Amino acid sequence: MPFAAVATDMETGREIWLREGPLADAVRASVAIPGVLSPYRLGGRWMLDGGLTDPVPVSLARALGAEIVIASNPNAKLDGMLWRADHGGAASWRSLLSALPERMREAVKPLVPGTAEAAPHYIDVVAAAIDVMTEQICRSRLAGDPPQVLLSANLPRISILDLHRAAEAIEEGRRMVDTEAPRIKALFGV
């Protein structure tokens, strides 16, 4: 089964399709979220998150030969809100902190916001900025090349940094597929 990941060349800002080589390298390059995960050197270039150039890579799926594209937008903001003061940032960060080994916890503790009433923390600002940019790029790209089915996640209380909340995201994935199952079956004549 063909596989490809999207990364962004840090030097040129170009979208890079990673179709060959070790899977782990392709995935790591594709998730190098600015300000969160360091860039990843691959093929002599520094790579950043592919969502900076193509958050829902429908064109790539078509280039790989897909006739029917069922795309998933894990960053969809169905209510239009890209950031919330009540997101629970401080609580979310404390939760993430508690999952880290003690030595790492102490090292990153100064970066964790103290209260919900405080001004948005640096990491909240980075996450919101990435969400704003990703949303705009996604809308533009999907307008030019829409999939047959777009599964849009409804995860308003989960940020790109809440990787420790995977179970909730997986459950939302199941809900999306269940909701769109009739359309998906119809596309395949089932």
Question: How would you briefly describe this protein structure?
Answer:
The protein has 190 residues and is α+β, with helices and mostly antiparallel strands. Helix content is 41%, strand content 13%. The mean pLDDT is 85.
Notes on the structure:
By secondary structure, the chain is α+β, with helices and mostly antiparallel strands. 41% of the residues lie in helices and 13% in strands. It has helices at residues 23-30, 58-63, 89-99, 102-108, 122-144, 166-187; strands at 5-9, 15-18, 40-42, 45-49, 70-73, 149-152. The strands form two sheets. It has a four-stranded antiparallel β-sheet. It has a two-stranded parallel ribbon with strand order 5-6. A hairpin with a 2-residue loop joins β3 and β4. The radius of gyration is 18 Å and the shape is globular. It starts with a strand and ends with a helix. The model has no long low-confidence stretch (mean pLDDT 85).
* Largest beta-sheet details: 4 strands, antiparallel
Q: If you compute it from the alpha carbons, what radius of gyration comes out, rounded to the nearest whole angstrom?
A: 18 Å
Q: First CA to last CA: what distance?
A: 22 Å
User: pLDDT below 50 for ≥5 consecutive residues: which ranges?
Assistant: none
Please count the beta strands (DSSP E, at least 2 residues each): 6
Mean pLDDT: 85
Helical percent range?
40-55%
Number of helices: 6
- The structural class is alpha+beta
Strand content: 5-15%
Shape: globular
Strand order of the largest sheet: 2-1-4-3
